[in-house]
Structures are given as structure tokens and as C-alpha cells.
Amino acid sequence: MTAPALLSATGLCVAFPGRRGRAPARAVDGVDLDVGRGEIVALVGESGCGKSTLARALLGLVAPTAGRVLFDGREPGRGTRALKEYRRRVQLVLQDPSGSLNPRHTVYEAVAEGLRIHGLRGDERAAVAEALARAGLRPPERFLLRHPHELSGGQRQRVVIAGALVLGPELIVADEPVASLDASVRGEILALLLRLRGELGLSALVVTHDLGLAWNVADRVAVMYLGRIVESGPVEEVLTAPRHPYTRALLSVLPESGAEPVVLSGEPPDTSRIPAGCRFHVRCPVLASGAAERAGVARACRGTELPVLPGGPDSRVACHWAAAGT
């Protein structure tokens, strides 16, 4: 029997009011997503697909317009006290450590801030030092009185991670955690996430546009396009045998893929005017090449909407052409 997910979203939707009478922008348009205990899930997609909005909705930073989020089997309350407790257990790590850290605060103050906000008592200095050490800043005493400008980019990101760890969270939501770092440092931060999972049993949802990062760090991957998950499953299955044309296009640009790069035509449609049928069909190379017509699914691609994929651990794909067994 499968253990219940630590974090679970069902039918989650987030819409923003349209300007000047336009239809609402459906940034997240029906998402089921699970993150298990001790599991790292990568949420992958190009800029504007809705992945950061989904992450913020999971954290309670954006109010969903439909659907629900469960953490540890319960729906987080909407009251101030309930949200405060939830956000202690689920911490956000942003992509830009320079923007996340107050330049006037020392490393000690930056990491201790969460303890003070949540009113957690005890030996504050010992807790800060332990969090810095776990984040790879050793010996921590060397860093306590430094300011952000005295640190490298990788060290600043470790301080941000330490600020999350000091609260003892069960899950970290990392939004593009290495996007602003040099290539030489990226591997160190990814190795740190894996080590924290091993040492603390920490779960993580890693939001990224980089499928190469997902390959290196994740257990499962969920590929998002225009507000929905279009393919998900164990990372080895999805990235070695992708079934959705969008996933294939994302993979094709990785140098190690060895495939001919697939250049998608145009830009993703406006989220206030999501096309009928498969939402990817207006850019789909399979449809453009005639392969969908030969498989007998071209009409369905253009006019039949696909269901929301369930959020479990099995491989899933929202694609008429893939479902036809081609």
C-alpha cells in the first residue's frame, strides 16, 4: 500500500483578474501533484508556464481559485497562526540569494530571523551555527559576522538554505535554486540538497527550467506547460523515454541528449486565451509534421481537451498522440 504523500495538490487552479475586461489569466489551470516523504520532485517547464505560481500556491503565498492542498494529510488553515506553523514546516528557497538577503544584516541575523519570527526559543547561537554547518559553511564561526557582499554567490545561497534549515522544515520548495550561480558551484548546491535528504529525510520540490538539473537531483519529474502538468513520472523513465512532444523538445536541447534540437515555433499562448483541445497543439512538431494525422488523432489534438493528470508516482502523459501508442 502506497504511503500518503507529504504534500499533495488536487485540482489546483490559480487565476488572476484580466485587464480592461479581458478574461482572467489562468496561470495554474488544474494541477494534481504529490511530493512524498524524503522525495525530491522536479517541476520543469519554460518561463511563463506557471511553475513558480504553482509553487507559491502550494506555500499559501497565493490563494488558489479552486482545488486544495494537503500537507501531512491535512489542509493548512487560512488563519495567521495556522499559516505560520505551515510555513515553518515548508520553507521556500528563492533563486536570487542577493535579493533574499538584507545587505545590512550579518549572516547570523539573516539565519536567526526565522527563529525570531516564529518565536522558537532555545540556544539561538547554537541553532544558527548548526544550520550553517549543515548548509556547508564550516566552521560556522567564520561566517556569523559577515555581510552578504563579503560572500561568494554559492556562499550566499548556502546562507539562504541555512535560514530555511534553522526552522527544521520537513519540505523545501526551491525555486530555480542554482539559476544565478556559476556552473562550478551549481553541482555543489545540488549535492547539498541530496545530502540534506539523506541526513534529515528532507523532501524537496525543485522548480526549474533545466531538465539536466532534474536528471541530477530528482526522483520524479513533472513537466508543466501552460498551467498544467503534461507529463510526469520517475525521472529515469521520463528523461530516457519521453512521450510528450513538449518533453522531447526540452530534452533535445541538452548537449548530452545527442538528439537533433527541436525548435518550437512561436511563443506559448496567452493564459487568458488557452486554445481548445491539447493546449500544446499550436506549437506541436508532431502535429505540424503530419504524424498526428497519420495516427488518426489530429482532430482530437485540435479539439478534445485532455484530463488533468493524477499526481501519483506512476508515469503519466497528457497527449492524444502518445495515448494512441505511437
From TrEMBL:
Q: Check the record and name the InterPro entries matching this protein.
A: AAA+_ATPase, ABC_transp_ATP-bind, ABC_transporter-like_ATP-bd, ABC_transporter-like_CS, Oligopep_ABC_C, P-loop_NTPase
User: Which intervals hold domain ABC transporter?
Assistant: 7-251
- Domain of life the protein comes from: Bacteria
Is the keyword GTP-binding assigned to this protein?
A: no
SUPFAM superfamilies in the cross-refs? P-loop containing nucleoside triphosphate hydrolases (SSF52540)
- Gene Ontology molecular function: ATP binding
Instruction: Enumerate the UniProt keywords alphabetically.
Output: ATP-binding, Nucleotide-binding, Transport
Q: Which PANTHER family match?
A: D,D-DIPEPTIDE TRANSPORT ATP-BINDING PROTEIN DDPF-RELATED (PTHR43776:SF7), TRANSPORT ATP-BINDING PROTEIN (PTHR43776)
Give the family, as the similarity comment puts it. Answer: Belongs to the ABC transporter superfamily.
Name under which the protein is recorded: ABC transporter ATP-binding protein
Q: Which organism is it from?
A: Streptomyces sanyensis
